[in-house]
Q: What sequence folds into this?
């Protein structure tokens, strides 16, 4: 692919034209579903580390970030338009049938348990069983959103494989109904924006179908005096107290520790009283790809459940829906996340609804039926009761979400 360099001003013009054409309903975007295949004698050789036991979440995270960065550079799309979704490993021993297995983030968390652990977990054994005589393939599935398919020549996926250091890259599907993300391009607003609250119940400013977000904190949680406080409520800081759920919504807070440490932290949710449950809320309906839960003391996640949208009273939105959206995403008697550690849960693609088209005629008030099935309004996390002794109290520093908001009332919320 040729590199075409244009002055920044021309780029801005092109972006403006793109938004304009979208606003007039003529823009098109394409969401490519790709799989990069990496092959090696062991997983370690693919990840570039000395042996399989050196594979931990940091290694996988860095490798994943590099994949996204290389794809972004090669395809000339912004980094946040490349979303690595899932990994699978395929092992092929001589005379044995090929076996493909989803490699969930949970497996990676298991792998991150330091060596010498007596867990003997089957996930860990399966993950690490690559050895002599086998060939291992790692399949990384990722999406690339192309907002200007007309602006460049067709992508050369063979050359992309080379750029990614992969054996091959396969295109699994192209969704041409993907919406355009104003948020990806939005320059800082020229004047203070009215605030999402003011937009509730009003017609959306632009016909935006959805907006992706990556590693975003939930926008709302129960406050001191009311059932939900949003991150941009003017009294947010008065509603927040040390150790309460609103610390999981507080966007400005400083990290609990500068080094990987376990211990108490006031700017986190500390599970002090039964039933050890926290609920986080979304203002717009969202579809989730991943939920990452950072625990900095006594990891003890027991269940993670999705709530339908709306999960709480939201002014201007339909009445709250009750119950859960499907079975628990996570339901384990013991949390094997190391401390400090991040438990990352991937929502299976079908269940997430992320591949579904977002119809132009829909809105939050009239959510298309197919989307209602996967539209999340909240996430409820419950913990196992801590053993006696306050030092064993579970401390959740943050919960971050990747996914997309449907018919966002203010898409710029997601570009922050
Ligand atoms: C994306 O690729 C995966 C893996 O090949 C496949 O299961 C899924 O159906 C694809 N989705 C779309 C929208 O093409
Ligand atoms: C976040 O920081 C900004 C700028 O420092 C400040 O204006 C705002 O009040 C802070 N918000 C919260 C919730 O701390
Ligand atoms: C919504 O508000 C009503 C009236 O204040 C209240 O009875 C109800 O419990 C609230 N619903 C939820 C889900 O919080
Ligand atoms: C969680 O798992 C336990 C044990 O397998 C099961 O009894 C329970 O019903 C599950 N919880 C939910 C909400 O599905």
A:
């Amino acid at each position: 692919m040729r590199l075409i360099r244009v002055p920044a001003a021309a780029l801005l013009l092109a972006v403006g034209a793109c938004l304009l054409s979208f606003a007039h309903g003529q823009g098109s975007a394409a969401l490519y579903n790709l799989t990069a295949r990496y092959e090696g004698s062991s997983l370690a050789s693919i990840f570039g580390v000395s042996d399989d036991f050196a594979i931990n979440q940091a290694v996988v995270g860095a490798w994943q970030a590099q994949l996204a960065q290389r794809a972004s550079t090669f395809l000339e799309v912004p980094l946040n338009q490349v979303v690595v979704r899932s990994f699978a490993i395929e092992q092929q021993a001589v005379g044995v049938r090929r076996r493909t297995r989803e490699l969930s983030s949970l497996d990676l968390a298991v792998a991150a348990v330091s060596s010498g652990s007596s867990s003997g977990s089957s996930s860990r054994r399966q993950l690490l069983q690559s050895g002599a005589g086998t060939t291992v393939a790692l399949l990384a599935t990722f999406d690339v959103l192309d907002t200007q398919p007309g602006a460049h020549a067709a992508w050369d996926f063979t050359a992309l494989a080379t750029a990614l250091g992969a054996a091959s890259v396969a295109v699994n599907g192209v969704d041409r109904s993907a919406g355009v993300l104003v948020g990806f391009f939005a320059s800082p607003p020229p004047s203070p924006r009215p605030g999402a609250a003011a937009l509730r119940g009003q017609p959306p400013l632009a016909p935006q179908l959805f907006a992706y977000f990556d590693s975003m904190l939930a926008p709302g949680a129960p406050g001191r005096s009311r059932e939900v406080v949003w991150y941009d409520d003017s009294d947010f800081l008065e509603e927040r107290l040390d150790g309460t759920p609103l610390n999981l919504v507080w966007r400005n807070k400083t990290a609990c520790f500068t080094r990987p440490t376990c211990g108490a932290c006031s700017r986190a949710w500390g599970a002090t009283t039964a039933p050890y449950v926290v609920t986080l809320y979304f203002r717009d309906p969202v579809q989730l790809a991943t939920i990452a839960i950072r625990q900095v003391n006594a990891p003890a996640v027991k269940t993670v459940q999705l709530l339908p949208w709306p999960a709480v009273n939201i002014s201007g939105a339909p009445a709250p829906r009750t119950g859960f959206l499907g079975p628990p995403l996570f339901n384990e008697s013991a949390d094997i996340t190391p401390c400090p550690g991040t438990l990352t849960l991937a929502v299976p693609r079908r269940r997430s609804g992320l591949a579904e088209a977002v119809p132009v005629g829909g809105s939050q008030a009239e959510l298309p039926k197919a989307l209602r099935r996967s539209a999340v309004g909240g996430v409820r996390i419950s913990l196992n009761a801590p053993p006696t002794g306050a030092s064993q109290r579970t401390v959740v520093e943050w919960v971050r979400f990747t996914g997309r908001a449907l018919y966002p009332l203010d898409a710029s919320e997601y570009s922050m």
About this structure: The two ends are 31 Å apart (CA to CA). The CA atoms of residues 35 and 170 lie 5 Å apart. DSSP finds eleven helices and 15 strands in the chain. The pocket of 2-acetamido-2-deoxy-beta-D-glucopyranose (ligand 2) is lined by residues 236-237, 252 (CB under 6 Å).
